């Protein structure tokens, strides 16, 4: 694997960084306090091609590689984890599912709108009682003639209220049976589909997380993706790629917290010297820098395999598991380096600290990643 960053990747990262510093950074705390989902930002990111990063140009995407996409998420998340999370969910989950499993008609219909952010996407797998155990879903889709009737509620869905289109995985077979789920594309405005409760969260507060409610929601069979019964398998494939983007989100948050702490440690004086002179602080910085680099390399390695269209189940889980735990640890250490000031909202590290925790939970908890990694390792 080549670790040097080529010119295109540098340009893409530069674009994401510049945009984030100019249009996101000044409003980060306002959106966080108000739990405001800043829709206009995603529309602007769409104009830059960052909402359809890996979508081929024929569907109006940017046609970039997963490596470039990882750099986009890192740069945005260095400034705001919430925006990073929403960009990741839109690109990897909803758009990624249609890109991987939609038929040509579905791709032509939905990908251009999603890639340009004319439409915002959501992806619904989780339910109130089935998170890690997503295969045990209760939301059902029942065939009636040429239509499917969806009933049930999906919880914790990024853009559950604001999305214009959602991919939903619903049960089409018996509970706990093999191959009992199917994926559907549901457009906002269809009768029986509505947004529900918006979650009031610890972090990632500018990324909307809400219920999606299906109440006798009728959709055409033309909106089914792939064969009946393939939905859960498709979801696992989508999550393999999605986990690389959560790893990138984690790396971005860790870098943001680390850079703030590094700077502060040089400026803050105690005992007549910068606190960075104290080994207790400088060793923390050394650990943070090393762990961030290790997390980034794992993430780029997984992205490289994804570019080569190889299976990334193990590498995606490893990157997500390690990088997310690093993000939480680094953000915690960053607050410690800031001392009392780190505990206030006047400095950025408390927000990195709150945002980082989502990374060990969303798209499969750390415990679930370890199950996946162990399962894959035991196959070897
Ligand atoms: C901000 C946010 C955004 C999200 N966005 C989306 C989205 O867009 N779409 C979507 O479908 N979902 C989304 N989710 C849901 C997310 O993927 C789930 O929260 C996650 O998979 C964990 O499920 P759970 O919350 O039900 O926890 P549970 O599954 O109830 O887990 C609780 C605890 O038990 C542990 N546990 C469970 N099973 C095992 C086991 N077998 N072995 C060891 N430990 C275990 C877990 O690791 C965890 O520590 C989002 C969640 C959040 C917080």
Which SSEs are present, and which pair or pack?
Blueprint: H1 7-24, H2 28-34, H3 39-47, H4 66-79, H5 81-101, H6 104-115, E1 121-124, E2 140-144, E3 147-158, E4 165-171, E5 181-187, E6 193-198, E7 209-220, E8 224-225, H7 231-267, E9 269-270, E10 273-274, H8 279-307, H9 313-338, H10 349-356, H11 366-379
Parallel strand pairs: 1-4
Antiparallel strand pairs: 2-3, 3-7, 4-5, 5-8, 6-7, 9-10
Helix pairs in contact: 1-4, 4-5, 4-7, 5-6, 5-7, 7-8, 7-9, 7-10, 8-9, 9-10, 9-11
The chain binds flavin-adenine dinucleotide.
In short:
The protein is an alpha+beta fold and 380 residues long.
Q: Any key phrases for this structure?
A:
four-stranded antiparallel β-sheet; 11 helices; 51% helix; binds flavin-adenine dinucleotide
> How many individual β-strands?
10
The helix content is 40-55%
**What does the main sheet amount to?**
4 strands, mixed
Please give the count of helices: 11
Distance between the termini: 21 Å
Strand order within the widest sheet?
1-4-5-8
Rg for CA atoms: 21 Å
Q: Can you tell me the overall shape? A: globular
Helical/strand content category: alpha+beta
Summarize model confidence as the mean pLDDT: 97
Uncertain runs are none
Strand residue content:
15-25%
Give the bound compounds: flavin-adenine dinucleotide
């Amino acid at each position: 694997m080549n670790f040097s960053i080529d010119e295109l990747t540098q340009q893409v990262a530069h674009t994401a960084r510049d945009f984030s510093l100019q249009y996101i950074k000044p409003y980060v705390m306002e959106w966080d306090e108000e739990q405001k989902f800043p829709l206009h930002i995603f529309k602007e990111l769409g104009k830059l091609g960052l909402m359809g990063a890996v979508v081929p140009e024929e569907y109006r995407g940017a046609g970039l590689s997963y490596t470039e996409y990882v750099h986009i998420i890192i740069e945005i998340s260095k400034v705001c984890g919430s925006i990073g999370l929403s960009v990741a969910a839109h690109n990897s989950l909803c758009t990624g599912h249609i890109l991987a499993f939609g038929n040509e008609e579905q791709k032509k219909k939905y990908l251009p709108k999603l890639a340009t952010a004319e439409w915002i996407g959501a992806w619904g797998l989780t339910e109130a009682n089935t998170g890690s155990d997503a295969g045990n879903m209760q939301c059902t889709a029942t065939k009636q003639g040429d239509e499917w009737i969806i009933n049930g509620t999906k919880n914790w869905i990024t853009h559950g209220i604001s999305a214009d289109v959602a991919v939903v995985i619903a049960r089409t077979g018996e509970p706990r049976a093999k191959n009992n789920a199917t994926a559907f594309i549901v457009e906002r405005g269809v009768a029986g589909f509505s947004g529900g409760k918006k979650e009031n969260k610890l972090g990632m507060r500018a990324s909307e997380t809400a219920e999606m409610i299906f109440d006798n929601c009728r959709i055409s069979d033309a909106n089914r993706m792939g064969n009946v019964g393939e939905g859960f398998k498709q979801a696992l494939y989508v999550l393999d790629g999605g986990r690389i983007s959560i790893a990138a989100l984690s790396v971005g948050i860790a870098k943001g917290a680390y850079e703030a702490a590094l700077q502060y440690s040089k400026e803050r004086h105690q005992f007549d010297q910068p606190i960075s002179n104290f080994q207790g602080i400088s060793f923390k910085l050394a650990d943070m820098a090393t762990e961030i680099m290790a997390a980034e390399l794992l993430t780029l390695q997984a992205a490289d395999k994804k570019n080569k269209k190889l299976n990334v189940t193990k590498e995606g889980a490893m990157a997500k598991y390690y990088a997310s735990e690093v993000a939480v640890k680094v953000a915690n250490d960053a607050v410690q380096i800031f001392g009392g000031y780190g505990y206030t909202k006047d400095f950025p590290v408390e927000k990195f600290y709150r945002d980082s925790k989502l990374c060990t939970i969303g798209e499969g908890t750390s415990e679930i990643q370890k199950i996946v990694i162990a399962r894959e390792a035991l196959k070897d």
